[in-house]
């Protein structure tokens, strides 16, 4: 410490601005500049490159996300369109099924009506046959009664005019409606 005070006392300045100090300052400045260049090559440029790559990756990720979102929206629109088409097709199928059911219902009703008409017609024919059969039975009974009356008349030896009168009387008693029913 004694030497610093000695230099201060002799020159009267705080530090001496001489050529050695200027040369050392210039060398230090050149060293700092070289150090700055070396550090920029070693550190700054790789960091800049890394930041650039990261920025590019983020940009590409954003673009990919936007494309994915657009594709998702397109797929959603396509899905909704297919869903609408499926709903329309389902409605058409249901409508066709309803029409077919109504048609089948009408067909069944018409067939039932035709069958009922056939049954009624068959019943009417059977009734008519039964009526004819009953009329034939009545006629046979009348013939039998007439034959019986005739045999009784013959037994009593009634003449033919009395016989015809008795048959006529018997027919009148039975009535004309008997033959019609």
Automatic annotation (TrEMBL):
Keyword Cell membrane belongs to the record: yes
UniProt membrane topology term: Single-pass membrane protein
SUPFAM superfamilies: F1F0 ATP synthase subunit B, membrane domain
Annotated keywords: ATP synthesis, Cell membrane, CF(0), Coiled coil, Hydrogen ion transport, Ion transport, Membrane, Transmembrane, Transmembrane helix, Transport
Stretches of the chain forming a coiled coil according to its record: 62-137
Principal localisation: membrane
Transmembrane segments: 20-44
Compartments, as annotated in UniProt: Cell membrane; Endomembrane system
UniProt-listed InterPro entries: ATP_synth_B-like_membr_sf, ATP_synth_b/b'su_bac/chlpt, ATP_synth_F0_bsu_bac, ATP_synthase_B_chain
Quaternary organization: F-type ATPases have 2 components, F(1) - the catalytic core - and F(0) - the membrane proton channel. F(1) has five subunits: alpha(3), beta(3), gamma(1), delta(1), epsilon(1). F(0) has three main subunits: a(1), b(2) and c(10-14). The alpha and beta chains form an alternating ring which encloses part of the gamma chain. F(1) is attached to F(0) by a central stalk formed by the gamma and epsilon chains, while a peripheral stalk is formed by the delta and b chains.
NCBIfam families: ATP_synt_b
Described function: Component of the F(0) channel, it forms part of the peripheral stalk, linking F(1) to F(0). F(1)F(0) ATP synthase produces ATP from ADP in the presence of a proton or sodium gradient. F-type ATPases consist of two structural domains, F(1) containing the extramembraneous catalytic core and F(0) containing the membrane proton channel, linked together by a central stalk and a peripheral stalk. During catalysis, ATP synthesis in the catalytic domain of F(1) is coupled via a rotary mechanism of the central stalk subunits to proton translocation.
Similarity comment: Belongs to the ATPase B chain family.
Name of the protein this chain belongs to: ATP synthase subunit b
Gene (UniProt): atpF
């Amino acid at each position: 410490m004694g030497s610093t005070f000695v230099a201060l006392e002799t020159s009267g300045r705080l530090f001496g601005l001489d050529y050695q100090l200027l040369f050392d300052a210039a060398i230090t400045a050149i060293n700092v500049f070289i150090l700055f260049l070396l550090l920029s090559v070693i550190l700054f440029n790789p960091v800049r490159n890394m930041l650039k790559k990261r920025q590019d990756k983020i940009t590409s990720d954003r673009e990919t996300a936007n494309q994915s979102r657009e594709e998702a929206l397109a797929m959603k629109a396509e899905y909704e369109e297919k869903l609408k088409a499926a709903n329309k097709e389902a409605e058409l199928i249901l409508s066709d099924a309803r029409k077919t059911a109504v048609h089948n219902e009408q067909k069944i009703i018409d067939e039932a009506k035709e069958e009922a008409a056939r049954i009624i017609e068959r019943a009417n024919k059977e009734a008519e046959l039964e009526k004819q059969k009953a009329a034939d039975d009545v006629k046979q009974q009348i013939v039998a009664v007439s034959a019986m009356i005739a045999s009784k008349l013959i037994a009593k030896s009634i003449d033919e005019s009395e016989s015809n009168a008795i048959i006529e009387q018997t027919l009148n008693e039975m009535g004309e409606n008997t033959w019609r029913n």
